[in-house]
């Protein structure tokens, strides 16, 4: 099983998925409506400043949704995603003119049962890493 994973290009360190996602304030409003999370930290610059934040921030669950979108896009089937943990290092500030979040997933290790552990990293230009996670997946055939 291990050799087929390596042959499929899944050696440790291989980037299996990466993409960039633009997030706007309008996206935050739409997400707030869909998720029923109307916390003003996600839409009010005044409230965000009062909380000590540098600006309006993206919902963590919105970002986690983008991570899931990245992984399932590569996997082709959401049922191949067995585990996902993600820790936010810093908030993603969304200025008036949008922000781009770059996500990438890299093979961390092959597991004896044929699954693959991935390291997932989210970053924003100028802010560096905003989140890091680990996923356990059953790779596509």
TrEMBL record:
Domain of life: Bacteria
InterPro entries listed in its UniProt record: HotDog_dom_sf, MaoC-like_dom
MaoC-like domain location: 14-101
Family the entry assigns: Belongs to the enoyl-CoA hydratase/isomerase family.
PANTHER family assigned: (3R)-HYDROXYACYL-ACP DEHYDRATASE SUBUNIT HADB, 3-HYDROXYACYL-THIOESTER DEHYDRATASE HTDX-RELATED
Protein name according to UniProt: MaoC like domain-containing protein
Higher taxonomy: Bacteria, Bacillati, Actinomycetota, Actinomycetes, Jiangellales
């Amino acid at each position: 099983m291990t050799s087929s994973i390596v042959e499929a290009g899944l050696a440790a360190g291989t980037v299996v998925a990466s993409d960039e996602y633009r997030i706007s304030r309008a996206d935050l409003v739409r997400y707030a409506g869909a998720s029923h999370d109307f916390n003003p930290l996600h839409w009010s610059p005044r409230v965000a400043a009062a909380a000590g934040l540098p600006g309006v921030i993206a919902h963590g669950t919105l970002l986690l949704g983008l991570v899931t979108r990245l992984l399932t896009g590569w996997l082709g089937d959401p049922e191949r995603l067995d585990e996902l943990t993600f820790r936010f290092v810093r908030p993603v500030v969304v200025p008036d003119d949008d922000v781009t979040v770059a996500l990438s997933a890299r093979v961390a290790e092959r597991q004896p049962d044929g699954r693959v552990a991935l390291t997932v990293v989210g970053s924003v230009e100028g802010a560096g890493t905003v989140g890091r996670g680990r996923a356990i997946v059953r790779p596509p055939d």
